[in-house]
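// run 5 | inverse folding | seed 20
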């Protein structure tokens, strides 16, 4: 996400490397590169120019004030502050007050509305302790009701549907009555995808909104469509006057223009960002954290939040005791892998750690790496998992045959595990040592 933009912005900041202070000449050169980077990221030229004019004004205003700060570092700080402002300034929450609260989900065909509806239900159920009801109001797309039903079963959230009814306004209204009588406190209405040029469909979504008076109307945008997504969001807002935007597919080959400029163009905040198909890959949008990611600073706050969600205090204390005794084994390693897996995509997590995005740039790290490691450990006997020291060559050959891996891969994994275990034991006496996985994750990545 934003890799290309990050690289180009870093190039712009490098023009100030070695400079003693900010001057009109070096600021102008850096500004030119920043503007090019934004335009390449599919930011409208007019917006890019206005943005860089503000950065230039701030930079020249600070050139004689902060002499102790390196010019490159100062420019990064100015650009970050302006990026935060451009993207909305602060996170904007979702309004779920009411009995029940009603959320209307709208968007273009193929934008990921239905998947987002499922993710939002999962998010509100797990993080806000709500009892959501999903409502299938897409009466046009084949298997749309089935898709929502499957998603609902995955997250154990009921789905209200009327397969024989082709009136989405009536379905939505009936669903709210059903929610009131059955104790649901949030109703999420998934509607059909539509085009802004389709007058009949646009009138339909307006009629649904008028009939159910939702607490929130969210417009789902495919971020991979770039600046086109921003124009579409603006057109829909004129008709629907929604409350917030959801950016989907941020893990795809996106240049970032939509995330950067939708708030500026439409005047409505981005409330959520979504990555991947898994139900736990929905995040509240924080402009400051997104700016940090764009500038390659990571997002340690989000990383810690994800870790805390999966943190098991009793398990952490048990693991810590074993590490201090140098008794950390393969069973413990599997336990840690499971906690990390629950946090989300491994490479996305590593990119949240400052400096890690550059280190993992040319390394393939994905969920298949978990399967590789697990296949090796599951091919071990209980004795071998409890006592890594007993692994001799004959045992390794059996494990290789059982896991479908080569002896070289088995040796490499065991060596990495041993190095990690030694480092963790060495660090275990450090003050503040807690639940950690020092030294990296054995077998989790390979050079491209």
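// decoded
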């Amino acid at each position: 996400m934003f890799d290309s933009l990050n690289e180009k912005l870093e190039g712009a900041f490098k023009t100030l490397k070695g400079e003693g202070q900010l001057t009109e000449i070096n600021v102008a050169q850096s500004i030119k590169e920043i503007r090019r980077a934004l335009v390449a990221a599919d930011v409208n030229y007019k917006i890019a120019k206005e943005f860089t004019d503000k950065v230039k004004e701030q930079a020249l205003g600070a050139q004689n004030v902060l002499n102790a700060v390196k010019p490159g570092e100062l420019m990064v700080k100015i650009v970050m502050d302006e990026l935060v402002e451009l993207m909305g300034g602060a996170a904007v929450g979702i309004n779920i007050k009411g009995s029940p609260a009603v959320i209307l989900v709208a968007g273009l065909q193929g934008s990921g509305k239905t998947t987002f509806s499922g993710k939002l239900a999962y998010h509100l159920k797990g993080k806000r302790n709500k009892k959501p009801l999903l409502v299938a109001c897409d009466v046009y797309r084949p298997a749309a009701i089935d898709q929502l039903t499957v998603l609902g079963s995955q997250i154990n959230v009921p789905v209200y549907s009327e397969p024989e009814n082709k009136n989405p306004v009536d379905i939505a209204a009936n669903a709210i009555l059903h929610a009131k009588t059955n104790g649901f406190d949030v109703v999420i209405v998934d509607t059909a995808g539509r085009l802004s040029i389709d007058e009949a469909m646009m009138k339909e979504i307006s009629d649904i909104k008028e009939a159910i008076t939702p607490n929130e109307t969210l417009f789902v945008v495919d971020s991979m469509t770039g600046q086109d997504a921003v124009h579409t969001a603006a057109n829909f807002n004129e008709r629907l006057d929604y409350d917030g935007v959801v950016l989907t597919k941020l893990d795809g080959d996106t240049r970032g223009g939509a995330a950067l400029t939708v708030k500026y163009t439409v005047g409505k905040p981005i409330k959520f960002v979504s990555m991947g198909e898994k139900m736990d890959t929905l995040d509240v949008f924080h402009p400051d954290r997104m700016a940090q990611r764009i500038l390659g600073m990571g997002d340690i706050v989000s990383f810690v939040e994800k870790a805390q969600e999966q943190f098991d205090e009793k398990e952490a204390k048990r693991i810590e005791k074993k590490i201090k005794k140098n008794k950390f084994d393969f069973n413990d390693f599997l336990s840690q892998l499971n906690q990390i897996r629950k946090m989300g995509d491994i490479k996305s997590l590593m990119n949240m750690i400052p400096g890690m995005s550059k280190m993992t740039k040319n390394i393939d790290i994905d969920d298949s790496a978990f399967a590789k490691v697990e296949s090796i450990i599951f091919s071990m006997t209980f004795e071998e998992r409890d006592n890594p020291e007993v692994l001799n060559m004959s045992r390794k050959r059996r494990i290789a045959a059982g896991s479908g891996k080569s002896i070289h891969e088995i040796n490499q994994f065991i060596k990495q595990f041993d190095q990690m275990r030694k480092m963790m034991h060495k660090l275990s006496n450090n003050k503040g040592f807690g639940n950690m996985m020092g030294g990296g994750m054995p077998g989790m990545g390979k050079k491209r």
